[in-house]
Recover the amino acids of this structure.
């Protein structure tokens, strides 16, 4: 290893949560301090998981999922914010991103005034799996900044990535996009900073169900979405979805697995700054032949 | 007669209802009793479903409640957990938050409460808070253990009801002062052993152990809390507390302030932080205080410069319960988190494996093959039907098919907590404040628990069995 | 076909069959009626197979769905009651066959259509729904209520009433 390369002075911290690995890559002179900062960020993920996981009997989301028509429950601000962003993305993608998987997201009433979630219909089931990791990464970056760590890259399960400032001496954090087939083949190399990235894809045996039709997705192997990180981070559920770029790209990457090429083009045109990449495989032919398409910017 | 009916009256005789052949009527009505049978079965089924539903539901708070003015004293990680639970309890009005870390924790909790429509005042000094906030009804205390006694006594004497986190105090002298202050002032004091209000634990205590006596004679108990290695807690450097203030509140530096649990004179180490919850359950479920304890422990892994208490503790308690003697083992260590935390009660008729977690060990029961059947308790909805282990047909003449051992049928406790872990215990406290309930963990109970737990550290030091007398548990 | 044309033994067996099928229908209906806010929506949404499009569409139409829910809950209950009592047996059998056919088509165990909910048995084309449907076919054709059921009393009353034209007064 060449000790002169700044990227080698980047410290990496890992933590298991939300059924995946979260990592903080941070450039900081004090290893111990950086570890404590990363731990504070990981503690936050654990708290979030406790509220957002539908696998915990006493999480906010489980309580929401058990609501009958006409009932309400109070949730943590982060849970509410996550649901509000999810609704926003439902509308933005014409229902292609649906945390209720077609069970009726619009029956969910989010009351920011008193932090409650109400249900107008029984039987709605919410699963924040497609947005929770990105949302967690967004909040983690807030903690790390509070601790004064700014040369940071945070990711949840490699699929939700947020880059802050690049390590000194580098233009950006070096990243790759790989072809989902086996063996993986690098399709693109990026150098990113102040950018949120989301990835979605099909590995062997996986499937993604289109919530609009209930049918499994065919003809799309992988998708990525990216948006720039906004300059100032406001706090709280009123802050608006833009302040949570990784939650957005997390969700949009999933949506880009389902949306048609025209729809993705439209989405990028309407939302300046949004970029998307897909690996399409329209005929279901040999996946090695699939090509990557780029939208936006 | 049949012929008469069968072939009818002459056409001219019509008019009025016809008489039917009895045999025909009987045949016609022959399947009606099936409806009665159905009705009976359905009633049974409804009773069973209702029992299960009742067991599973935490009683909901009623609509109109008298508003209680509360303050939080200690806005660290645990204080934030309590706030999180309290925000889901109707009828509370946060008036004040107090924390010496005004730059960070205090600001964060005040902001979070503001988001929920509260307008709490922030204080660094709890005395100033007690002076200025005259409308307070109750104070919830989540400060470091060595502050509990003074904070609690001062709040009680200021006429506030107090919910104080466990461990009640890091010294028995402090815990005793708290009991006496509660008695003197007549104010309520709830100690934060929150499992005492957890619906699953209450169900086990009242129904499974109390009424059904499913385990028979409990002879052994074992419990563990295993926690993975975590780095010491730090603090964002820009929000560090000035040294003078740290010293004023009894901390030598920021590192000690953040990691007080590991320091003698401030906390009690993992046996007190973690073990206290579970050893309290031993005593509660067994219906007796321990008569003796031996323990081994040490600082086996962590850095002695920043850790004074034992990171690993193994203790064995003796109990003389009304039903007979019991040995209860407890282990806590902080170098490996596998298997997490649980309590396991083992009787001659069954085993109860329980934990506070809604994810792991959420109440599993195993019946001894020779114990009386549990069918009645299944029908009452006290426990679930067992997950039957596979049965294999035997070859002709064989007594048993010799193979890998089959585990016994597993039942589960059908009670689920949908709320944050601390909510029922806080709810119980506020019910008591309103006069609609009685405390599940009054100071006398918290004191008994402190006596049992703090003795472990003494026993490790003494390297010998230490006995308890009945007087030890009495204030 | 007439109930009287069968010997007693088979008729008793078919009556037992009718009561059991009726019991099942009745409980299916009552369980749905007594469940808070039951809806067929979940079941419809999980539809698989060649007709899944229609069932999913139905699930997405709130007004239609509400009607379908009511018809299912009360229909099952009524069919169950009538089958147990042996009243209007033929109509009840036809209605029952209709219900079961819909359930069957919603999630048919055809080759390649795995059932998303773990089921308690192994089925290929034929499942218990289809067997129950066939049982109702038997009950329909022999009109079992005429042998043991209120239909018998009803039948006797109707048969015994003299033809209108023949009533002299």
């Amino acid at each position: 290893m060449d000790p002169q390369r700044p990227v080698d002075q980047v410290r990496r911290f890992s933590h298991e949560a939300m059924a995946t690995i979260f990592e903080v890559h941070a450039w900081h002179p004090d290893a111990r301090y950086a570890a404590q900062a990363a731990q504070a960020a990981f503690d936050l993920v654990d708290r979030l998981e406790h509220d957002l996981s539908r696998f915990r009997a006493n999480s906010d989301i489980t309580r929401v999922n058990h609501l009958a028509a006409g009932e309400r429950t109070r949730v943590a601000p982060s849970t509410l914010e996550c649901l509000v962003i999810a609704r926003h993305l439902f509308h933005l993608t014409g229902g292609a991103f649906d945390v209720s998987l077609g069970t009726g997201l619009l029956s969910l009433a989010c009351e920011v005034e008193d932090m409650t979630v109400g249900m107008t219909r029984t039987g709605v089931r919410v699963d924040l799996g497609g947005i929770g990791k990105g949302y967690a990464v967004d909040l983690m970056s807030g903690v790390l900044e509070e601790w004064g760590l700014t040369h940071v890259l945070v990711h949840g399960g490699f699929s939700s990535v947020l880059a802050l400032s690049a390590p000194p001496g580098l233009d950006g954090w070096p990243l790759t996009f790989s072809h989902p087939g086996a063996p993986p083949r690098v399709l693109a190399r990026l150098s990113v900073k102040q950018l949120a990235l989301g990835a979605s894809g099909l590995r062997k045996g996986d499937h993604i169900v289109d919530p609009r039709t209930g049918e499994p997705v065919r003809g799309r192997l992988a998708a990525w979405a990216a948006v720039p990180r906004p300059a100032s981070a406001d706090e709280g559920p009123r802050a608006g979805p833009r302040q949570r770029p990784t939650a957005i790209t997390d969700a949009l990457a999933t949506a880009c697995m389902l949306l048609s090429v025209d729809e993705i083009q439209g989405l990028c045109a309407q939302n300046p700054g949004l970029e998307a990449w897909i690996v399409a495989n329209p005929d279901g032919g040999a996946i090695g032949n699939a090509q990557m398409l780029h939208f936006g910017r | 007669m049949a012929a008469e009916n069968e072939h009818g009256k002459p056409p001219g005789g019509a008019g009025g209802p016809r008489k039917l052949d009895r045999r025909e009527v009987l045949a016609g009505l022959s399947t009606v009793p099936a409806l009665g049978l159905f009705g009976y079965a359905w009633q049974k089924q409804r009773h069973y479903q209702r029992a299960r539903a009742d067991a599973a539901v935490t009683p909901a708070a009623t609509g109109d409640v008298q508003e209680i003015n509360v303050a939080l004293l200690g806005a660290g990680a645990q204080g934030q957990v309590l706030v999180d639970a309290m925000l889901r309890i109707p009828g509370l009005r946060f008036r004040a938050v107090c924390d010496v870390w005004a730059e960070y924790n205090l600001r964060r909790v005040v902001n979070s409460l503001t988001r929920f429509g509260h307008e709490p005042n922030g204080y660094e000094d709890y005395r100033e808070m007690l002076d200025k906030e005259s409308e307070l009804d109750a104070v919830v205390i989540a400060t470091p253990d060595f502050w509990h006694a003074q904070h609690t006594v001062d709040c009680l004497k200021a006429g506030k009801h107090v919910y104080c986190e466990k461990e009640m105090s890091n010294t028995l002298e402090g815990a005793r002062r708290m009991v006496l202050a509660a008695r003197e002032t007549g104010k309520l004091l709830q100690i934060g052993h929150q499992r005492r209000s957890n619906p699953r634990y209450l169900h086990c205590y009242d129904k499974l152990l109390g009424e059904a006596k499913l385990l028979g004679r409990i002879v052994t108990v074992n419990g563990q809390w295993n926690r993975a290695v975590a780095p010491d807690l730090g603090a964002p450097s820009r929000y560090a507390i000035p040294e003078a203030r740290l010293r004023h509140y009894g901390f030598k530096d920021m590192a000690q302030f953040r990691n007080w649990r590991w320091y003698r004179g401030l906390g009690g180490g993992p046996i007190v932080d973690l073990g206290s919850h579970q050893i309290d359950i031993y005593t509660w479920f067994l219906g007796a205080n321990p008569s003796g304890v031996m323990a081994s422990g040490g600082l086996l892994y962590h850095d002695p410069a920043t850790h004074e208490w034992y990171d690993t503790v193994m203790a064995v308690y003796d109990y003389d319960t009304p039903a007979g003697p019991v040995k209860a083992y407890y282990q806590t260590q902080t170098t490996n988190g596998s298997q997490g935390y649980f309590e396991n009660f083992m009787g001659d008729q069954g085993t109860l494996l329980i934990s506070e977690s809604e994810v792991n060990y959420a109440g599993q029961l195993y019946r001894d093959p020779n114990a009386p059947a549990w069918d009645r308790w299944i029908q009452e909805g006290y426990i679930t039907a067992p997950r039957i282990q596979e049965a294999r047909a035997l070859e002709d003449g064989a007594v048993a098919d010799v193979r890998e051992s089959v585990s016994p049928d597993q039942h589960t406790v059908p009670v689920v907590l949908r709320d944050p872990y601390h909510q029922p215990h806080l709810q119980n406290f506020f019910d008591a404040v309103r006069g609609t309930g009685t405390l599940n963990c009054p100071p006398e109970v918290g004191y008994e628990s402190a006596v049992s737990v703090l003795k472990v550290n003494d026993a490790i030091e003494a390297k010998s069995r230490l006995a308890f007398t009945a007087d030890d548990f009495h204030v | 076909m007439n109930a009287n044309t069968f010997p007693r033994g088979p008729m008793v067996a078919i009556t037992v069959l009718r009561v059991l099928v009726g019991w099942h229908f009745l409980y299916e209906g009552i369980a749905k009626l007594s469940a808070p806010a039951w809806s067929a929506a979940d079941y419809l949404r999980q539809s698989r197979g060649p007709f899944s499009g229609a069932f999913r569409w139905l699930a997405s139409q709130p007004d239609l769905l509400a009607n379908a829910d009511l018809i299912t809950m009360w229909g099952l209950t009524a069919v169950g009651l009538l089958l147990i009592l042996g009243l209007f047996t033929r109509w009840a059998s036809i209605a029952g066959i209709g219900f079961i056919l819909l359930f069957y088509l919603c999630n048919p165990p055809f080759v390649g259509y795995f059932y998303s909910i773990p089921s308690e048995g192994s089925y290929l084309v034929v499942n218990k729904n289809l067997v129950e449907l066939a049982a109702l076919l038997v009950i329909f054709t022999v009109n079992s209520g005429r042998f043991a059921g209120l239909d018998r009393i009803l039948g006797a009353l109707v048969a015994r009433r003299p033809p209108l034209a023949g009533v002299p007064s």
